[in-house]
Design brief:
The protein has 268 residues and is α/β, with parallel strands linked by helices. It contains seven helices and eleven strands. Strands 2-3-4-5 form a four-stranded antiparallel beta sheet, with no helix packed on it. A four-stranded parallel beta sheet has the order 9-8-10-11, covered by helices on one side. It has a three-stranded mixed beta sheet with strand order 1-7-6, with no helix packed on it. Strand 6 and strand 7 form a beta hairpin. The longest helix has 18 residues. The chain starts with 21 loop residues before the first strand and ends with a helix. The relative contact order is 0.11.
Length: 268
């Protein structure tokens, strides 16, 4: 154990007391309440309290006490924004802090695999900024039927991990049976319950009341486009993707699954 020399006065360390910075509680600023572990973006300030919203849409009210929050891992005191103060903090589509002047980090050895091109485009639209900050590459597989063989070829190991996003990951599905057979600690497989990633976009964001029910045996995308009058699946996908501006346009299961994969492949 390393000792500390306090000099002649044991009640004085001789060090200056650390200043806790005051940070304006601008909408979108991401902070953490260390007491509860709740992390979220500032929505608003009301009567000495701040309302935070996490990436899953959960909201909580916290008193704005001195040094009560962590910002980028450091204690801060949140204060109301002055009326004449310009906004300085921006958030990305995923709700994370936007890094201005970003230069993409060199790609990691780890990868995130998704089932198809639409999955990859949707992940890029919402989490693209985060992925470039972290140096994570997303690759479409065009299905997961040969996932065990692809993993053998890739050779997961420390610093060379694989996170896999799977559609329709529900009990009894072929996808769930496939996932159960893979136990490599350097592989993390998550998913969502929807038949297709289109369905993970909230209906209201697309401008519909609900996703149509497509009879079993019929191609899901073609059935949806026929029911909604969207033309061909390519036309339908442009409409769906164009309706997504951020994580609030997505259903919680997809958000949670992608966040977990990003955390897994960026662990050191």
């Amino acid at each position: 154990m390393r000792s500390v020399n306090y000099g002649n006065d044991i009640l004085s360390s001789g060090r200056k007391r650390r200043e806790i910075p005051e940070v304006p509680a601008e909408p979108g600023l991401v902070v953490e309440d260390p007491a509860s572990g709740f992390c979220g973006a500032v929505l608003r300030v009301e009567k000495g309290n701040v309302v935070l919203e996490d990436r899953r849409g959960g909201r909580r009210l916290f008193p704005m006490r001195p040094a009560a929050f962590l910002h980028e891992g450091r204690p801060v005191t949140l204060v109301p924004v002055r009326a004449d103060a310009p906004a300085t903090t921006r958030t990305s589509a995923s709700g994370s802090v936007h890094v201005d002047g970003l230069r993409a980090r060199e790609a990691r050895g780890s990868r995130i695999w998704v089932e198809g091109l639409h999955d990859a485009e949707l992940v890029e639209r919402v989490w693209g900024h985060d992925l470039r900050v972290e140096g994570v590459v997303v690759e479409p597989l065009h299905g997961v039927d040969d996932l065990p063989g692809l993993l053998t070829e890739f050779g997961p190991r420390s610093g060379h991990r694989v996170g896999v996003l799977v559609d329709h990951l529900v009990a009894g599905s072929k996808e769930s049976r496939l996932v159960e057979s893979i136990t490599d600690p350097h592989v993390c497989i998550t998913g969502h319950p929807f038949v297709d990633v289109w369905e993970a976009v909230k209906p209201a964001s697309v401008g519909i009341e609900a996703w149509p029910r497509v009879p079993r045996g019929q191609d899901w995308k073609e059935g949806v486009c026929a029911e909604l009058g969207w033309g061909e699946p390519a036309d339908g996908w442009r409409r769906v993707l164009g309706s997504v501006n951020g994580f609030r346009d997505l259903e919680a299961p997809l958000i949670g699954a992608v966040e977990r994969l990003i955390d897994f492949v960026t662990e050191t």
